[in-house]
Specification:
It catalyses: GMP + diphosphate = guanine + 5-phospho-alpha-D-ribose 1-diphosphate; IMP + diphosphate = hypoxanthine + 5-phospho-alpha-D-ribose 1-diphosphate. It is a single chain. The chain is built from three helices and eleven strands; from the N terminus they run ββαβαββββαββββ. With 180 residues, it is α/β, with parallel strands linked by helices. The strands form three sheets. The protein has a five-stranded parallel β-sheet, sandwiched between helices. Strands 1-2-11-10 form a four-stranded antiparallel β-sheet. The structure holds 1-O-pyrophosphono-5-O-phosphono-alpha-D-ribofuranose and guanine (GUN). Guanine binds next to strand 10.
Length: 180
Amino acid sequence: MHKIKVEDKEFEIFLENDTINKRIRLLGIQMNVDYEGKCPLFIGVLNGSFLFMADLIKEITVPCEIAFMRVASYEGQSSSGKVKELIGLPENIEGRDVIIVEDIVDTGLTLTHILKTIKEKKPASVSVSTLLLKPSALKHKIEDLEYVGFEIPNEFVVGYGLDYNGLGRNLNDIYRATEI
Ligand SMILES: O=P(O)(O)OC[C@H]1O[C@H](OP(=O)(O)OP(=O)(O)O)[C@H](O)[C@@H]1O
Ligand SMILES: Nc1nc2[nH]cnc2c(=O)[nH]1
């Protein structure tokens, strides 16, 4: 088993880059069908979504726009339970077809907050694309999760944009912690 260390913690390979990219290609095809004749606005949630957004957007063939915003709720490995203010959310989303792009939905707290704020700005539609979803960790019901890359167990993962204490975002593959 391919193992690596990020800071003090050991991780093992979980999803290889090739597997990730194949899944993203399928998500892109699905979106191109769903948004035919429209011009969706993809809003990436920084920092974690930057690689997913880059690879996903290359699969999109309908006209589209891209923006990024930021909200931080995690320190180390556990949720603080608090979501900070949204920073950089585009102002002019009224009437737009918005697709929120996340790297991971864990408890769902971050996304619940983002969806509430975005819907107040009266977009024509909102959907969510997340590369990873931990169904057993969800504490908040989310109805707009249209495009899920992989459903994964409730384990801490790192790589392909996801960090452990700021490190590991540059890893091509996704790894899971070997112990809690
Ligand atoms: O569903 P939740 O339990 O709210 O967790 C999901 C959030 O946690 C991660 O962000 P993080 O706060 O780690 O910031 P980052 O993207 O900069 O790593 C991830 O990108 C989501 O936004
Ligand atoms: N890196 C990382 N960030 C997260 N944010 C919420 N869950 C996770 C996770 O499993 N890994």
